[in-house]
Fold this sequence. Notes:
Elements (H helix, E strand, L loop, with lengths): L8 H16 L3 H17 L4 H18 L1
Helix pairs in contact: 1-2, 1-3, 2-3
Amino acid sequence: xxxxxxxxxxLVATKMNHWYLALKNNWVAKAEQMRDEVxxxxxxxxxxxDAVVCYQLLKFRHELMLD
Length: 67
């Protein structure tokens, strides 16, 4: 992976926190926007297993919100 394109873990984690806030408050449009942003950035993020697990849990909660 090109080092210039690697996104720091803490920036993605902050976006995941915003996504969680949108999910918790049932802001569907904001949650969709944050999910899309995190989905793109998680691929470019530095390797951090905790962030990947958190992403999977948020994705599951997002699906529950939409059901």
